[in-house]
């Protein structure tokens, strides 16, 4: 019930997911990404646990293809699922279960992958892939959004439209950009509006003011607290 693109950008080391569907709040469950690790979209019969587990595997150095196989091997509903992912080196892997509602399929390339189910046809994915490749000089987040818009223009989800999301990570533990349209008559139009708003100076200066990591004093305090015996952490209120 969804079409999406996952990608890793060799120039900026950013990775992310752009996704749209005729379903509520797609950004809450389908896209998963972690800086310097990779990204995955879990759709069809969506299982967000697969997204969480995949990032753990990738972070421990498991390849994209092996990660995919490990996710599927004990999944009794794998034939109803669709997964595609990219690792921090740009390697991709994808799966479309035979019971996903048609049209359903995926296309994988170095550095990015596109996938969808319940689409009007393969042309949706072809349009997304062609657009992403043609926009190589464009800023990464905008490039992802253009690919998504191309899929919508080619027909998108055959049931219609409802929600969309753009989730991108860079070097921090929190996302570089996390935009969601959970319920809207024209979610991609609204997502484009939010994206353009995020380019405004007021938001960019705010985003750039955020620290890249916890201060050393905070990390030290947390480590000290965790190393303290539990009995010494408790305060008895009488």
Terminal CA distance reads: 56 Å
In one word, what is the shape? globular
Structural class: alpha+beta
Q: Averaging pLDDT over every residue, what do you get? A: 92
Spatially, the strands of the biggest sheet line up as 7-8-1-2-9-10
How much is the radius of gyration in Å?
A: 19 Å
| Helical content band | 25-40%
Strand content: 15-25%
Order of helices and strands: EEEEHHEEEEHHEEHHHH
pLDDT < 50 stretches = 233-238
What's the total number of strands?
10
Main pleated-sheet profile: 6 strands, antiparallel
What's the number of helices? 8
What's the layout of helices and strands?
Layout: E1 2-8, E2 15-21, E3 31-34, E4 38-44, H1 48-59, H2 64-73, E5 81-87, E6 92-96, E7 105-109, E8 112-116, H3 123-134, H4 140-153, E9 163-169, E10 177-181, H5 187-198, H6 201-208, H7 216-227, H8 230-233
Antiparallel strand pairs: 1-2, 1-8, 2-9, 3-4, 4-5, 5-6, 7-8, 9-10
Structure described in brief:
With 238 residues, this protein is of the alpha+beta class.
């Amino acid at each position: 019930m969804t079409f999406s693109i996952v990608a890793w950008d060799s120039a900026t080391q950013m990775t992310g997911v752009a996704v749209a569907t005729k379903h509520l709040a797609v950004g809450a469950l389908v896209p998963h990404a972690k800086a310097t690790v990779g990204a995955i979209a879990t759709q069809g019969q969506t299982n967000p646990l697969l997204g969480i587990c995949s990032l753990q595997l990738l972070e421990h150095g498991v390849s994209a293809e092996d990660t995919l196989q490990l996710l599927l091997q004990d999944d009794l509903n794998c034939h109803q699922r669709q997964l595609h992912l990219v690792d921090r080196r740009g390697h991709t892997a994808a799966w479309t279960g035979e019971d996903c509602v048609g049209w359903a399929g995926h296309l994988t390339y170095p550095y990015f992958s596109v996938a969808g189910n319940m689409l009007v046809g393969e042309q949706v994915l072809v349009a997304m892939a062609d657009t992403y490749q043609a926009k190589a000089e464009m800023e990464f987040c905008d490039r992802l959004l253009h690919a998504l818009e191309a899929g919508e223009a080619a027909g998108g989800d055959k049931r219609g439209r409802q929600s969309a999301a753009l989730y991108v990570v860079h070097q921090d533990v929190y996302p570089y950009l996390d935009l969601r349209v959970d319920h809207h008559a024209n979610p991609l139009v609204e997502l484009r509006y939010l994206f353009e708003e995020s380019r405004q100076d007021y938001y960019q200066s705010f985003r750039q003011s955020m620290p890249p990591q916890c201060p050393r004093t905070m990390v030290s305090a947390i480590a000290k607290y965790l190393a303290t015996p539990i009995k010494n952490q408790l305060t008895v209120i009488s």
